[in-house]
Write the structure tokens for this entry.
Amino acid sequence: MEDGNAPNNGNNVHASALPPDWVDDVDAVNATISDIRRLTLELASMHASRIGTVFGRDLDNMERQIERKTTEVTTLFRKAERHLQRVGSSTRRAGGEESVVGANVQRSLAMQLQSLSSDFRQGQRKYLSDVKAQKSGGLVESEARFGINLEDDGTLQQRGDDYGFGSAQQMSVVDDLQAEIQSRDTEISQIAKSIEELGAIFKELAVLVIDQGTILDRIDYNMEAVVDHTKTGIQQLEKAEKSQKSARPMKCILCLLFTIMILLLILVLKHRH
Amino acid sequence: MTAMMSSSDQLDGISSVRTYIDRLATGDGRCHGMKVLLLDASTTQILSCVSTQSEILSREVYLVSRIDEPPRGTGGIDNDFNNSNGGGASARHSLALDEETAPHVGHMKAVCFLRPTETNVGLLVKELAAPRFSEYHIYFSGIVPPHLLHLLAENDPRERVRQVQEFYADFLPINPDLLSLNCRNTLPMTSSSSSSREHHAALYERNLAGLQSMLLALKRQPAAIRYQKSSRTARRLANDIGECIGSDQIFHFLRGSGRGGGGTGQGQGQQAGSSGGNNNMLLLVLDRMDDPVTPLLSQWTYQAMVHELLGLNNSRVVLRGVPNVSKDLEEVVLSSAPGHDAFFQAHRNSNFGELGEAIQNLLRDYQAKSKMHQVSNLRSIEDMQQFMEKFPELRSQSHTVSKHVAIMGELARLVEVCSLMDVSAFEQDLACSDDQARHLRELMSKLDSQTVKIPDKLRLGMLYALRYENAAPSGAIPAVKEAMRRGGVPPDGVGLVDAILKYAGSDVRGPGLYGTNRDITSKLMKSFMSSVQGVSNVYSQHSPVLMDTVEGAAKGKLPGQTHPLVLSGGGASSNVEGMPLPQEILIFMVGGVTYEESTKVNQFNQANSGKVRVILGGSTVHNSTSFLEELKLVMNGR
């Protein structure tokens, strides 16, 4: 998509018709889309490696990275959407063929963005549920360990020696687990938030996307619709012109002017006496 | 069906045209970035038939515009609007305005897909004199005459044209085995005398070009061309296409028979048979005139029925004004193109009863699925997310279901209101059996009946007149006409009875209608078989004349007296002995085909899958309304 623009610019030099501003926005959206594609791929591989590891020192590091990437992708989505809206508003302002082009560009890009965002959300959701499963699995595991530990505790107590040491060990295990649970909780809530945000964008894009298989997806129907729109537009303009030229406001003004003149005359005459 | 799909070189109108459109949308690989598509009236229809808005959008075609009606009216308005708005952007636009007429889209590239007509080339020349776009990629939908190409080459002062190609998609592939030119009013052309040939020259050219393009798009050189002897137009078309093939190398595909110019007699056909291997195509040029009965009958298969009762115009059905139809279903699409509507593809040839059942199943499936995803079932976030994911799919399914249910409901209502069951049974009887006295009695009672609608009375009267043109007792046909008038048929409608006899009476049409070309024994055999087996379905006993022709041709039993062969040097021969059996048959029916014929051809193809494949093409696809409209033109001598 981007490579199409290089020759485009070259042509415009001798075509002496600079593309309008919104074309830059379109390019930006296209670039963003390819960025999103790349980042989603990276994210997917990071998800996989994160799910693969249960404990370890880079766990926190990994999660932080995933978190950062996720927010990055979400910002990119928002950025693309912003550019898309700009395309819409600037082409609408231009009117005529350009507005049709703008609407179509918006639609096509929105379709791409929508499929991307749904892929992304699917990936996020899968990751989220995997992490959750791991976490609850971990909890079960740790509870089980607790049970064993408690039993151990009992035996230790019975033995009488090593009492203090055992308890300290247990406390540290509990602390570790708690910290872990908390960190995963925040992680999950953050991902949920990003999904929520994407959901909002998804909803806004959905307005732009055409339903396939309906009459709205017919090429000839759309062309007829454009002609109809232009026709009604011209009619409206003609009406406006007519009403602008129409004599009624003019008459009012003349009438008022006339009255003022008479009143002035009366005033002058009155002062003479 | 699957076996047919698997062979890659299967004759398939839709996929042939799609290949062209796919190449078109990318400028044949040489046009990147934002594109504009410039079309004319007929290429618009062709494109819409096989492609969709979302499809071309995904290929960066962001504007589709007609070359013959550029949006002039809006130009001035835009400028006013921009100037009043002020601001940097509009200032730049108005600067560019001095340079070009439509600067806003000047950075885009134009892909033109046009018919190679003088008018279109003229419009292109005008466009190139003040180009609105930065590049022009031009594709013509047929063979471009050299002088038009010259004209184009000489009138490109700014060298904006990047390529000119011929993409032979000059017809609408309605079904894989049904092609139409969507070219109306060919009936007057076929029935007029040779003196008024000039009058219909443009129409004739359109038909010839359409037929050429069918052959080129399907990439076949016919091994033999035969035509219907009773029709002058069919003969002329067959001769002209034979001449084109003989004189233009473009028709000679590598796997075909090779030299078309050489060889005498039916040598061309035999050569093809011996060397062409699996490419033994027969081109059969027919005329609607041979069978005026089929377009007059009520139809009971889905596609045909929709066309007959609601009108199916390039896959679009208008349901506006139908009781209880929601706003988004006022106009719907019934397309056979793959990926559009699987239900319609599967059931376009199903009859009304099967269809009702199928729609019921469709509805049940949908209900089951939607119950699974009901809002009240959403308990957790996961459920909601799953719902959101399934939602688009569910919605498109709901559209399909409501579309078919709405159409079915309207069809059922019309059948009820017009008492079509009754009418159709009598129509079939009139078309299939011989019993003058009984038919006349029943016809009279139908014509006097209140429940039978006026267009149906007209059709019944015409069917009777066609059947008993010669066998009716004198005074019967005038009496029928009188009864029609009494029954409320308008005078010009009554006049159509004479018009159809003039257009396709027994003197004019070829033999074959009502089984007149069968000998006595086969006739007896048939009536014996039908009395023994009984009629399976009263509403579909009629079989069009076309099917006799197709079966004859497939078995090599089509007599040369009725369907002579075009000789490569010009002229015709009725000697068809020793011709190899065709594996592919392209039928072109000038004057238009019907969906009944298409359904029957489809059934034939399924029954003979692997042996012979038939593709049906025609000037247009008729229903009784369009057929009668064109007949009126014949009557008025136009």
